[in-house]
Design goal:
This protein is an alpha+beta fold and about 575 residues long. It has 16 helices and 10 strands. It is about 55% helix and about 10% strand. The chain has a 5-stranded antiparallel β-sheet with strand order 6-5-4-3-7.
């Protein structure tokens, strides 16, 4: 025990002076060296002393060592999580709520007590835990969803333990609770350890041999962290009476899925190869990116396709390794290929079309990152080309995901494929009567005066046409970069307008003159003559009705005033014969 304490104490002290003694170090790192690691050192020392001898007395050291390990792992797992999420205000480990039933169940499994007494004690502990859980306020852990899910699952586990205890299966109830706590703690340790490995990987240098060795060490340390987390938690589970049998039967034996069997060793091997493959991809991509800088006669545009091919080759090898590690024969891939062909024929045509189009774009170098393209009425700059789609950023800062099949099947305009220089044209119309030679000289002078206009090919001016209202001129010039083409054309237009105004040259616009002529006065047309109508036979004339005359009034203009003689009622025939 003394030897273990000395070794672990010296190592912890050296690490503390190396990393945690500075004033800029966060409180979480100091808590790791001041609280978590001392508990861990004491637990390892007690375990070492218990394993060095035999006898019932040394089982006490084994139990005490495991209890210290449980406390150390709860603090260490929470500290590692806080390294990634320093904004969380909860400083006390949330799994500390689980510590009391865990320690009690662990002690009850070790102590030589009678079964009825153990059942009564454990029943009281479970009931007290349920009551305390209902009265406990809910913790706000922010982005730590794993801890929140574990605490939400605890009441369900306690009720199951209560049912098992009431049924007389208190041993199974205690083992179930210990397995729940151990799995939750192992998951938290794995997440915290992998977050620490990722942060170390981001801080490593990216160039040189030391960088390659450092990335390789981090890739190998990732499975070591997982193994340490799992072994550290399974240590105090396996030392229980019957615990090693449970670990061998349910963990180390593996799981059968059909004809494929895999266990924890296979899983750790796959994780190790995953990190090794990721490290190899990153190192290989950086090595290929440095080739043009080393003076080799390699076109820089070939680097992205080479990096893509290298990346997919390594990940394909990793996929084959995973299948082989799980016990699958590679000859069975023919069946998988047949199923994929049927799937492609029915529902994956679009996906495969985009995938093949992406490979065509990458290896044919039709498009490259940074090119300004126009496809389907959309114009923007290519940001990233993947095997499924291409990211195009418009000039309005909108990111459009365009399927690769559109670039291959439809009309594509690449403005910067040949070079960054582009030609622009400015059309000007001046009024009739202007000096054409002077206009052309002014246009050339304004183009040559701009610094963004190339001297070769030189700017040119053409007398385009005699317009309806203007003399049309066309100024063509080459701009050194596509990004400044619009602003350059705008600056030249401003200078042309200013110079024309000073030289009294009118920039004409369409005009229309309307002349209104006065018409002669209108004369009255003569009426047409009416010829008399003659009829051989006339119909008999109807008798005329005569209305009775009203009574005479004594007062003129009164009600009884004589009325005007009634008008004769017109008849259907003419009165020529009777007039």
């Amino acid at each position: 025990m003394v030897v273990c304490l000395l070794l672990t104490g010296v190592l912890t002290t050296l690490l503390y002076r190396r990393w945690a003694s500075h004033d800029t170090v966060s409180g979480t790192v100091r808590h790791i060296f001041r609280v978590s690691l001392p508990w861990l050192c004491v637990g390892l020392a007690l375990l070492g002393s218990s394993l060095s001898a035999s006898g019932e007395f040394f089982r006490l050291f084994l139990a005490l060592g495991n209890l210290c390990l449980i406390v150390a792992q709860i603090h260490l797992a929470w500290d590692l999580r806080l390294l990634k999420y320093p904004e969380v205000q909860q400083q006390k480990p949330p799994f500390w709520i689980l510590i009391q039933p865990t320690l009690c169940s662990y002690v009850l499994l070790y102590l030589p007590l009678t079964k009825p007494l153990v059942l009564v004690i454990w029943l009281g502990i479970v009931i007290a835990s349920i009551v305390r859980q209902h009265r406990r306020p809910k913790l706000d852990l922010g982005p730590l969803h794993v801890e929140t899910s574990v605490l939400e699952c605890e009441p369900m586990v306690l009720w199951i333990c209560l049912v098992l205890t009431l049924g007389g299966l208190h041993i199974y109830s205690m083992v179930l609770y210990l397995l729940f706590v151990s799995c939750s703690l192992a998951l938290q340790l794995c997440l915290g350890g992998m977050a620490l490995v990722s942060s170390l990987n981001d801080r490593l240098p990216q160039e040189g041999v030391r960088a390659a060795l450092a990335h390789l060490a981090v890739a190998l340390s990732a499975p070591v962290v997982l193994v340490a987390a799992i072994v550290g938690v399974s240590q105090w589970v396996g030392t229980l009476p019957g615990g090693m049998y449970l670990l061998q039967h349910y963990v180390l034996r593996g799981v059968n899925v059909g004809a494929t069997q895999f266990n924890i060793v296979h899983l750790l091997l796959i994780i190790t190869m995953f990190y090794l493959t990721r490290t190899a991809v990153a190192m290989g991509s950086r090595f290929l990116a440095r080739l043009p800088k080393q003076g080799l006669a390699i076109d820089a545009t070939l680097i992205p396709p080479m990096q893509t091919a290298f990346t997919y080759a390594l990940w394909c090898c990793f996929g084959l390794f995973v299948l082989r590690a799980l016990g699958m024969e590679l000859s069975n891939l023919a069946m998988v290929a047949g199923g994929l062909s049927v799937g492609i024929g029915f529902g994956m045509q679009t996906i495969v079309n985009n995938f093949l189009s992406g490979l065509i774009l990458i290896f044919s170098r039709t498009l490259q990152a940074g090119d300004v393209v126009e496809v389907g009425g959309t114009q923007g700059r290519v940001r990233k080309i993947s095997v499924r789609a291409t990211m195009v950023e418009t000039f309005d800062n909108a990111l459009i995901i365009v399927p690769n099949s559109e670039f291959v099947a439809s009309r594509l305009i690449n403005w910067t494929r040949n070079s960054r220089t582009v030609r622009r044209e400015i059309k000007v119309g001046v009024a009739y009567g202007s000096d054409a030679d002077q206009v052309m000289k002014i246009l050339l002078a304004m183009a040559n005066a701009n610094s963004n206009v190339l001297k070769y090919p030189p700017p040119s001016v053409a007398f385009a046409d005699f317009g309806a209202s203007t003399l049309d001129f066309s100024l063509r010039f080459w701009v050194r970069d596509y990004d400044v083409a619009v602003s350059t054309a705008s600056d030249i237009r401003v200078e042309i307008e200013r110079e024309f105004r000073e030289q009294h040259i009118d920039i004409a616009f369409p005009q229309l003159d309307v002349n209104i002529k006065e018409l002669p006065p209108l004369t009255k047309a003569p009426l047409p003559s009416v010829e008399p109508r003659t009829s051989k036979r006339r119909a008999p004339r109807r008798p005329r009705r005569v209305l009775p005359a009203p009574a005479k009034s004594s007062k003129p203009g009164g009600k009884n005033a004589p009325a005007a003689p009634p008008a004769a009622t017109p008849d259907d025939g003419d009165d020529d014969e009777n007039s």
